[in-house]
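testing teh design pipeline on a random one, pls ignore if ur not involved
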């Protein structure tokens, strides 16, 4: 006679607030992964983490990036595949992005181009130094010196070790992506363009996360309210 589900109150989805690093912490992180303090085991992972900061790509997207999807001459890369960790048995598998928005073109900054050129140069050096190692015809951008790759969740584990060794605040690897988006948002990047760059299917997702991250711009606009409300030569105290 009556559907009890109609009386059920659906719980609201509570989104965790992003906690992007400050500019100072970003510089400390980059200085550490470029310094001699970082051990050889972590060095290859540093490139992947730096690429997240430069592009805002997801962990699986960075790990799944192949050189055929990189166009350094035109300063672009194409997000067409991901590398995901297997839940059982170890290893990884490749897949396509979850949504059409995830399959996108990302414009590269000069710094990102330099980073990718450095990675490619090191891989070419390894191939010359170790000719006995057989590389794939279209290798991954992020890989070890012998062309083998790691599970994406290993990147997260190494990230936590690096941040602890560098004395940085504890955060998630995903917040490197937030840090990239926050920098663009503070520089006035259009939300629709930011949503396309991040691979968000709905611009409302971008607005919910980053709409309040431009305090400098808002402060300037709020000051203009005073200008419009203030009578010439009068103050609120004078009117009272």
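output:
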């Amino acid at each position: 006679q009556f559907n009890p589900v109609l009386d059920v109150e659906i719980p609201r989805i509570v989104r965790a607030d992003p906690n992007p690093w400050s500019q100072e912490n970003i510089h400390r992180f980059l200085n550490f992964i470029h310094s001699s303090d970082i051990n050889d085991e972590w060095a290859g992972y540093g490139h992947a983490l730096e690429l997240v900061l430069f592009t805002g790509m997801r962990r699986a997207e960075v790990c799944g990036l192949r050189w055929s999807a990189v166009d350094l001459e035109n300063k672009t890369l194409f997000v067409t595949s991901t590398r995901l960790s297997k839940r059982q048995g170890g290893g990884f598998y490749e897949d396509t992005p979850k949504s059409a928005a995830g399959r996108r073109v990302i414009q590269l900054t000069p710094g990102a181009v330099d980073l990718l050129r450095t990675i490619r140069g090191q891989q070419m050096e390894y191939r010359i130094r170790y000719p006995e190692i057989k590389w794939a015809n279209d290798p991954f951008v992020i890989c070890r010196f012998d062309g083998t790759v790691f599970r994406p969740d290993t990147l997260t584990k190494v990230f936590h070790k690096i941040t602890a060794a560098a004395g940085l605040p504890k955060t998630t690897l995903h917040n490197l992506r937030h840090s990239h988006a926050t920098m663009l948002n503070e520089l006035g990047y259009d939300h629709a363009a930011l949503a396309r760059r991040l691979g968000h299917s709905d611009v409302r997702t971008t607005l919910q996360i980053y709409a309040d991250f431009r305090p400098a711009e808002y402060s300037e606009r709020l000051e203009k309210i005073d200008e419009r409300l203030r009578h010439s030569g009068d103050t609120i105290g004078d009117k009272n």
